[in-house]
Write a structure and sequence with these properties.
- With 367 residues, the protein is an alpha/beta fold.
- The relative contact order is 0.09.
- It has 14 helices and 12 strands.
- The chain folds into 2 domains: 6-293, Vaccinia Virus protein VP39 (Rossmann fold); 301-366, Arc Repressor Mutant, subunit A (Orthogonal Bundle), CATH 1.10.10.
């Protein structure tokens, strides 16, 4: 059995003894996204993988499921499960270094019953960094070897993460990563000049670039840090959901890195589904000054301004304007709602159709 350190043991016990809104939202986002991810990825790939870095016990003290069970049940209870598994297999890989947690997780998975034929589940009792390093080494050493299309959920107990290894995995064409980003603790570390802390941050970022974050104003520092990670990961797309405490202090962010617009938009859809569950904010990676409050009926004025800035009053095919929506915090249903309002108020002109039908891609202009 791997021996635990006191601080890690205490953190682990506290985590599983409670079930906070953070954990609830984290699991809701994970489920909503996987509900879309499984049918999309398995449609074009014979095998896909779900990988979790710190799997834990599988169930909280009061009975709430942990993320491995949430992920498994997302597939097992999926409306299209049989169709998903008809021509594809799904492998779940749960990394957990402590034997007692491994035993608990094994029991929780067994409680789900016999898994379908094309579903495999492996619990890897190792340190997650060692597992990721082994994968990276195999990818680098073997020719014509690619990583199975994978969703990696990186959910640590601390702010530290192996940026170099995650960046290598993200280089694979069909790999994406969701990170539970513990901003409050990282921010404290950035302001700490103790040699041990400096060495840990140098190792995490691969250089001393993180020191520039000290000069960034407090209210913008988290955004600047996420941009630095996006640069280190060489990710095309990044999406984050920020979570604040009751004093309006930023504590955590769930951050999704990917290299495909479909993944980016599906994570955006999943995040907006959380609107009824609390006070969260979205941030679009291309404009850190534009932060959107997650509410059921958001203020669409920034979206209207963005479309006008791009196209002005010039005629344009409606579908060509979607590029603005895709690079914003908003979804297409938000944009369609905005277009209906503009049309009713005579602020949108149709040039080639009598009615506003989005699927027919009308030629429009904004007044």
């Amino acid at each position: 059995m791997t021996k635990r350190k006191t601080t890690e043991e205490n953190t682990d016990q506290k985590y599983w003894a409670e079930y906070s809104n953070l954990q609830f939202i984290k699991h809701q986002l994970l489920k909503k996204y996987l509900d879309a991810w499984f049918p999309i990825l398995t449609k074009y790939n014979g095998q896909v993988s779900y990988v979790e870095s710190h799997a834990g016990r599988g169930k909280h003290t009061k009975g709430e499921p942990g993320s491995p069970i949430v992920a498994l049940k997302s597939l097992l209870d999926h409306y299209y499960r049989d169709e998903i598994l008809k021509s594809s297999s799904v492998g779940f890989y749960f990394i957990e270094k402590f034997q007692d947690s491994v035993s608990d997780l094994q029991a929780e998975i067994a409680n789900l019953g016999t898994l379908p034929k094309n579903v495999t589940c492996s619990i890897i009792q190792k340190d997650h960094e060692k597992v990721f390093q082994d994968i990276c080494d195999r990818l680098d050493e073997a020719t014509n070897t690619q990583l199975t299309p994978s969703f990696i959920f990186y959910d640590p107990y601390s702010f530290l993460m192996p940026v170099d290894k995650l960046a290598r995995l993200l280089k694979e064409s069909k790999c994406e990563i969701l990170i539970n980003f513990m901003w409050r603790y990282l921010n404290l570390a950035i302001n700490n000049d103790q040699p041990g802390q400096v060495e840990r941050l140098n190792s995490m970022f691969g250089d001393e670039s993180w020191k520039n974050l000290r000069d960034v104003p407090k209210e913008s520092r988290c955004d600047a840090t996420l941009l630095l990670l996006k640069e280190k990961f060489k990710a095309d797309h990044m999406w984050s959901v920020k979570m604040y405490d009751n004093r309006n202090v930023l504590k955590y962010a769930l951050v999704h890195f990917s290299n495909h617009p479909t993944a980016y938009n599906k994570m955006k859809d999943a995040a907006w589904s959380l609107a009824e569950h609390g006070d969260f904010r979205f941030w679009q990676s291309d404009d850190p000054n534009q932060e959107t409050l997650l509410v059921a009926k958001p203020n669409l004025k920034p979206l209207h301004e963005a479309v006008l800035a791009k196209f002005g009053t010039n005629p344009v095919q409606l579908h060509d304007t979607y590029e603005v929506v895709d690079s914003s915090p908003f979804r297409k249903p938000h944009y369609h709602s905005l277009l209906r309002e503009l049309y009713k108020s005579n602020s949108l002109v149709l040039h080639d159709q009598a009615k506003l039908v989005f699927s027919k891609n009308p030629l429009i202009s904004f007044v």
